[in-house]
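Consider the following input, taken from an annotated entry for Methyltransferase domain-containing protein (Actinomadura violacea).
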Amino acid sequence: MDSTAYKSGVTDAFTRAAGSYDRGGVGFFTPMGRELVRLAAPRPGERVLDVGCGRGAALFPAAEAVGPGGRAVGIDIAATMIEAAREEVRRIGAGNVELLVMDAERPHFPNASFDLVLGGYSILFLPEAPAALARYPRIMAPGGRLAFTCPLFVPGSFPFLPPVFTPMFPPSVFAALPPDWQPDELRRRYNGWLSDVAELEAVLEAAGFTGVEVRDQTVPMTAESPSAWVEWSHTQGMRLLWDRLPVPVAGELRRSLVAGLTELAAEDGSLVIDTPVRFVTAEIIS
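Applying the prediction step yields:
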């Protein structure tokens, strides 16, 4: 895998999606971010780093938890995401939040800068994640903790989405995608080590962490309507898939998704889909 080209593609996708990211009548990243912060349990006065912070789904709850005596720093490789988060800082007057454009694979901070490092659905997008994670203990204080989320890869299902979506993908989608975008290859390429608990523990321990805990639970994904969900899917990681589909195939996938989600919708057209998410916590080796 050409990590430079890969990272450029991810950056471009999220740069273009920033204006509507985590918006549009769909709720998922915000409740997941709050649950991540709840499990990480930042304490008043602590210093928190949110890796791949996006518009701040985990960053702002963390900032609230550490209070005015603490500090919450968000980094993202997409400058438009950082600007969107800065607008929120100005709107709510979050004086303890700092936002920086930075590549999460190479965090540039002094030693022992943070007590807690968070990552909401961001670690999986790092092309050299195991090596990148090994750079974080240096910038963490003694007793520093790590907490992040990633998709729960379910065998036989399309990666990154709840299993209920898999039957909604028409065969034309897979026929149109190159070999490195087939489901099994996607799992491998997007840090497939996250799917195996033993391998996940081994990677984190090699990177300098201990006390690894893995919790698999569901986060409710809500949407105002099937079409709202499809529009929202263009504003997050799935945009990488949409961008690779020929227009006719993308249209077929859209129609299939709307039809399938309509069958799952409530009488008012709204959706609640339980989405499996893996929550991982650890601490640095003293």
